[in-house]
Write a structure and sequence with these properties.
- This protein is an alpha+beta fold and 99 residues long.
- 40% of the residues lie in helices and 26% in strands.
Length: 99
């Protein structure tokens, strides 16, 4: 499997990094490490995380600092596509529907 971080997720990553830098250099590094670990795991075991209860088109993983990673698996392309990375306090359902 390969992994693709789609444009909205790339934007989410940049915003998360900017936000976390307000708390020093350690939080963004820890978040990057957590996201990298998620990517390594999901490429090898794409179905290890549950389907998102509000929209079963997506799977959802919780990573560091209560961020949620929403992704889909395309078996035909052997690809994991990351759509959004959102904090758990945000309205993920509305944001995914507008993606």
């Amino acid at each position: 499997m390969k992994i693709s971080v789609l444009s909205l997720a790339q934007r989410d990553l940049k915003e998360i990094h900017l936000y976390l830098t307000e708390y020093g250099i350690e939080p963004p590094r820890k978040f990057r490490d957590s996201f990298a670990k998620f990517c390594t795991l999901v490429v090898d075991m794409p179905y290890m995380y549950a389907a998102y209860e509000h929209n079963s088109n997506y799977r959802k993983a919780v990573i560091l600092y209560d961020y949620l990673v929403f992704y889909q698996v395309d078996e035909g392309k052997s690809e994991v596509m990351i759509y959004r990375i959102l904090h758990s306090k945000r309205d993920a359902g509305a944001l995914l529907n507008n993606s």
